[in-house]
Amino acid sequence: MKRPRKRGSSVAVIDIGSNSVRLVVYEALARSLIPIFNEKTLCGLGREVQSTGLLAPDAVDKALTSLKRFRALCRVMQVGRVFAIATAACRDASNGPDFITKAERICAVKIEILSGPREARLSALGVISGIHHPDGIVGDLGGGSLELIDVRKNSVRSGVTLPLGGLALQDLAHKSLKRADRIVREELDEVPQLTAGRSRTFYAVGGTWRALARIHIIQSGYPLQVMHGYSLSAAEALDFSRRLRRLAAANMLADIESVADARRPLLTYAALVLEHIIRVAKPKTIVFSTFGVREGLLHEKLSEAERNKDGLICAAEELNQLLSRSAKHAHELIAWTDRLARVVKLRETQEDRRLRHTACLLSDIGWRVHPDHRGEQTLSLVVNGNFGAITHTERAFVGLSVFYRYAGLSEENQPPTNMQELLTPAQLERARLLGAAFRVAHLISAARPGVLPATHFRSQGRKLMLVFEHRLVDLVADRVGSRFRQLARLIGRAGSIVRR
From CA 43, how far away is CA 105, in angstroms rounded? Predict the structure, then answer.
């Protein structure tokens, strides 16, 4: 089992935003960021900046009180390094420098006041850290500003900052939605970052947009309660935004319990901005990202070699090290399924192979659970896992592959229907095939290293053979043959065991 990280290896980000002040502590500065503590206070620092040019006095007091607690928490948690950033409200308000001086005295760290372009870049890096090869426009909607930036795979293009954050827009429009509509229209028309977004993906970053995603997930009965990677077609998002605005006009937003009271008034403005973005950019899909400025800040601090690693594989490696009986066995399982795929000429894309390897790394993480519940519990752990660089469809695929490894393929032990419906029939069949392969591999090896490398596959016509080296022949049993024949049938072959 992996040894615990050294004391003081954790890192924290204090994020002083226009709406909220937040502390997030991560287990370590690594490619796969694992939050171990997350707390925010909705202070509303930027709620009057557009009209008065000042941070509101009561908001300043509330923020400074929260920062005292954050500093104390970092001491209690023995955080190794603390980074602090401030965004639109602090850079735009005339009393921002005075507030920052007091905040730095409390936090005992230098606070970086992000410029608009810098904030846009960090938002984009956050999406790059949490989305596998993103291609589209990143929009980060905060309380004070909206950042828009073009991202193509791991390349960050130029960005723009607009005064369209929820609090700023509410203040500019004097709480008039009609006036806000006109302001947003004028600001967004002809923004080059949006005109480059046609038929691509729009990545929605920021707490208020996440709140919109949460409401849609609940109202639609969607099976995964995971905001990161949740996606809607542009048409669905447009329809939902308009429905939300109608609810606001009828004073019905107060009935939405899944959103904090302080954020609820901003939902309408967030929906309005999203509507106009869809109108101008004409994206194909809206994807919500919980990875943003904070994650981008830490991603930037990694070495180039670390940044170029696959975030999903890194996260799976972490879980494999922490929860599997043998981390080495999982890597032998990757090689074993590589050989199987090669022998049977399994058609795989690069993404298919990536997900198969991920599933191999996670195939033994449920061994401590009671045998009757390993399938469902491991499925839940995978699909709800706090990691990025994976879509919801991919979560379902990996989760179901591991579910079938534990629960088997019989009709009596089927996963939830709504989870199966996240996959196409072909994807579901591939998950069943991979689960069947895991059932063979774990049965013959008992999840111990050194066994799988001594077994080989041979194909002869429509026949698939699993060959055991002489020293392992005592591992062969009727149950092994039965499971291997089941695997072979899923591939369209007749299976048999060969003792060398």
Answer: 19
Which helix H or strand E contains 160, and what residues bound it? strand 155-162
| Gap between the Cα atoms of 82 and 10, Å rounded | 9
At 1 the pLDDT is 43
pLDDT digits (tens, 9 = 90+) for 412-432: 889 999 999 999 999 999 999
d(CA 383, CA 400): 9
Rounded distance, CA 124 to CA 396, Å? Answer: 26
Tell me the C-alpha distance between 423 and 431, whole Å.
9
Computed over every residue of the chain, the mean pLDDT equals 95
In 95-174, beta strands by DSSP E:
111-113, 135-141, 146-152, 155-162
For residue 447, the Cα-to-chain-centroid distance in whole angstroms is: 29
- As a whole number, mean pLDDT of residues 117-123 equals 96
Judging by DSSP bridges, how do beta strands 285-289 and 201-205 pair with one another? parallel
pLDDT band at 154 (very low <50, low <70, confident <90, very high): confident
Q: Rg of the chain's alpha carbons, rounded to an integer?
A: 25
Three-class secondary structure of residue 334 per DSSP: helix
- Euclidean distance between CA atoms 205 and 411, whole angstroms: 41
Per-residue pLDDT reduced to its tens digit, 233-249? 999 999 999 998 887 76
Q: What is the per-residue pLDDT for 3?
A: 45
- Of the candidates 344, 434, 374, the one whose C-alpha atom is nearest the C-alpha of residue 398 is 434
- Dump pLDDT digits (tens) for 454-464: 999 999 999 99
Distance CA 57, CA 129 (A): 36
Pair 374, 406: CB distance under 8 Å: yes
Structure tokens at 109: 């760290």
Burial class (CB in 10 A: 0-12, 13-18, 19+), 41: middle
CB 116 within 8 A of CB 90: no
Distance in angstroms (rounded) separating the CA atoms of residues 337 and 339: 5
Residue 244: which of 230, 234, 255 has the closest Cα? 255
Structure tokens at 211: 């709140």
In angstroms, the CA 320 to CA 342 distance is 24
Q: Which residues of 458-480 are buried (b: 16+ CB within 10 A; e: fewer)?
A: eeeeeebbbebeeebeeebeeeb
Domains of the chain: 11-113 (3.30.420.40), 117-296 (3.30.420.150), 311-499 (1.10.3210.10)
Cα–Cα distance measured from residue 286 to residue 274, given in angstroms and rounded to the nearest whole number? 10
User: How far separated are the first and last CA of the chain, in Å rounded?
Assistant: 34
Closest by alpha carbon to 332, among 447, 477, 487, 488? 447
- Going by C-beta distance under 8 Å and a sequence separation of 6 or more, which residues neighbour residue 237? 274, 278, 286
Paired tokens of 75 = 């001491």
Q: Is the dihedral of CA 411, 414, 420, 425 positive or negative?
A: negative
